[in-house]
């Protein structure tokens, strides 16, 4: 499934019997999720806390986004509210602001610049536009527990709303007048399209390799995160090695997120996900857990290639992915990328912002502990 | 596929519902600059009522790879002059051929389905009018700057422009639910909505990427403005269907957004890359804008003056959808009954035909022709900053060529 990253719930695992709370963090709504990091320390990471240090920045962003999109037409406002209000956590802009502030110290900046803020808005508009079009491409009815834009307003409004947001983002990007960032973000938009095509071209293809999956995940998810973090560093005017480390951080974090998302599609229930469980597999989108499981289970290949024509075959396949070590190996992959991301942060001075970035990496992993 | 979408009439934005009241199929008629098959379409170019195809010759006009057709029009009976699009573009024919090749390779490199979709739209009678303009203006202004040859930037600009134009057509056809464009099925009719959305997104993305890598901030901002204007134009049009209070200014703004903005950015961009002075680039912008508006008005006139056979689609389809263009806006000033009919959204049988007749009778056509000529005159004036050359003449003739469609 597309780019939506869900702060989901860790299912009560049979091993440690933890009680879990559902977390949904949007502006104005704050709930805490607690995960036991290790039994002995009783540490808790909450997304609220992570973003507390940039809460005002995110509020401003929200206001600006609604006014940019709403100024044009009432129907667009409704479409925008449907998607903006649908449980989005502003994770990408949150990252932009955290990296901005973490790198600003290096450059002696005291405050975020207008460029930093605009970058956050551009990133969120691009992300949102891609979600709207993705739902059209996937013919998805639900996202985060609400109807998708095209389910509610029709395909045409969805196409138009997506186009409008891409157009606005491009215009604001151009008017930032920074060629490096313009090229960076244009590459992302190109990668989105390439990712969609790549995915659509390889549905039910059991010869999909891990490299193909990682490339597709980069195109569809990590490319935007990497451009967000690098762009933030560029506008902080730090040195090239730092901007490059920020790019790698974003890329590894993005890949880690995507892998976790793909695991959750197998481990969570429909209610927890806000959309049907196993929908990636049902559509033939073969993600990390499946690719790993396919190495062990020939029968799985048969079922997938049958495109689940038999009743109950999808459930059988999901079970085989779980049994065949697919989940476990995917978890290892997610941790590997997370470790790389942590390393990428070492060029930053120690600060509350850098800690928040590290905790974001850990937070993601805990979704699958 | 469209039946699954619920179209909500929120008063301000109404998409045409399949309610059965409108008997005509929408046929991609947002009157794009030279794109509909009623104007410069592939091979079906019987123009205005007095134009007669005279001895068509098989000269290569690049309206698709490997397909060549000529159109000739009588300019005025006494002079027997003919302006042919072939001749106009002859001086940049090689440039256009290179463009065609590059476009197919850019789009096709990614995926076979995209190649098919691209061929469907690229091969569907497009005349490369905009890139043709880019190349003509590039060469006309290059002289001023002492350039001998087109630069890579010029060529890339032409490709970017054509990709943006094509992407907008593909999405427009999804928005209109159009089955046909220029006599062929639309991309979404043939391959489905998803491929159409994806193909359009891919082309916009490619265009944006090439644009960014031109590394010229002025042109980047110029073209980004166009993409924004496209979206604004679609929204503006959709929000004002059947709105009889539409003023001429609203119409001109919408026409600018949807048509003239891209043409203006094409011509100005070409001048920028020729590195000429600012006053010249500004005149080229105005030229493109006036030419684009003139084209749009002519397109909108033809929707009333041509027959279904000539148009290749039902006459008056703009009006049928509630898209009120210049002839209608003018006629509304004289005919109160016309307002009634339009506001009824043609629910009565025969009311559309009655409305079309009233537009013709009420001087709407005549005044729209004056408007087209006025914009054309402005466009000609904008060219005066250019040195006299074959390229400048070609640009002037392009203005006249457009007008002759309605003589």
From TrEMBL, chain B:
PROSITE patterns found in the cross-reference section: POLYPRENYL_SYNTHASE_1, POLYPRENYL_SYNTHASE_2
Q: What Gene Ontology terms describe what this protein does at the molecular function level?
A: all-trans-nonaprenyl-diphosphate synthase (geranylgeranyl-diphosphate specific) activity; metal ion binding
| Subcellular localization | Plastid, Chloroplast
Family matches, as InterPro entries: Isoprenoid_synthase_dom_sf (IPR008949), Polyprenyl_synt (IPR000092), Polyprenyl_synt_CS (IPR033749)
List, in alphabetical order, the GO biological process terms annotated in this UniProt record. Answer: isoprenoid biosynthetic process; plastoquinone biosynthetic process
A Gene Ontology cellular-component term? chloroplast
Q: Which domain of life is it from?
A: Eukaryota
Per UniProt, the enzyme's principal EC class comes to transferase
Question: In which family does this protein belong, per the annotation?
Answer: Belongs to the FPP/GGPP synthase family.
Q: How does it assemble?
A: Homodimer. Interacts with FBN5.
PANTHER family assigned to the protein according to its UniProt record, in alphabetical order: ALL TRANS-POLYPRENYL-DIPHOSPHATE SYNTHASE PDSS1 (PTHR12001:SF69), GERANYLGERANYL PYROPHOSPHATE SYNTHASE (PTHR12001)
Q: Under what name is this protein listed?
A: all-trans-nonaprenyl-diphosphate synthase [geranylgeranyl-diphosphatespecific]
Q: Which organism is it from?
A: Capsella rubella
């Amino acid at each position: 499934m597309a780019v939506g990253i869900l702060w989901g719930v860790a299912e009560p695992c049979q091993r440690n019997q933890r009680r879990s709370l559902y977390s949904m963090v949007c502006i104005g709504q704050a709930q805490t999720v607690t995960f036991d990091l290790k039994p002995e320390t009783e540490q808790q990471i909450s997304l609220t806390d992570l973003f507390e240090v940039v809460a005002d920045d995110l509020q401003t962003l929200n206001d600006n986004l609604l006014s940019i999109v709403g100024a044009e037409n009432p129907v667009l406002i409704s479409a925008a509210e449907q998607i903006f209000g649908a449980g989005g956590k502003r994770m990408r802009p949150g990252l932009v602001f955290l990296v901005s502030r973490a790198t600003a110290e290096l450059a002696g900046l005291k405050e975020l610049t207008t460029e930093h803020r605009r970058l956050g808005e551009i990133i969120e508009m691009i992300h949102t536009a891609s979600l709207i079009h993705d739902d059209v491409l996937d013919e998805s009815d639900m996202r985060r527990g609400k109807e998708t834009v095209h389910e509610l307003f029709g395909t045409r409004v969805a196409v138009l709303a997506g186009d409008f947001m891409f157009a606005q983002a491009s215009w604001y990007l151009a008017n930032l007048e920074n060629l490096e960032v313009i090229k960076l973000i244009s590459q992302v938009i190109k990668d989105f399209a390439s990712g969609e095509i790549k995915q659509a071209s390889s549905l039910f293809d059991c010869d999909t390799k891990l490299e193909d999956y990682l490339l597709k995940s980069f195109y569809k998810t990590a490319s935007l995160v990497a451009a967000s973090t690098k762009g933030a560093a560029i506008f902080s005017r730090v040195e090239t090695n730092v901007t490059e480390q920020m790019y790698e951080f974003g890329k590894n974090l993005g890949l880690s997120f995507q892998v976790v998302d793909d695991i959750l599609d197998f481990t969570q229930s429909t209610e927890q996900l806000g959309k049907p469980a196993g929908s990636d597999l049902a559509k033939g989108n073969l993600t990390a857990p499946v690719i790993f499981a396919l190495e062990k289970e020939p029968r799985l290949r048969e079922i997938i290639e049958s495109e689940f024509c038999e009743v109950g075959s999808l459930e059988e396949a999901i079970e085989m992915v779980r049994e065949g070590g697919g989940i476990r190996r995917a978890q290892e992959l997610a941790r590997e990328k997370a470790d790389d991301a942590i390393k990428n942060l070492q060029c930053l001075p120690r600060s509350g912002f850098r800690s928040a970035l590290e905790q974001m990496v850990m937070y993601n992993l805990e979704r699958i502990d």
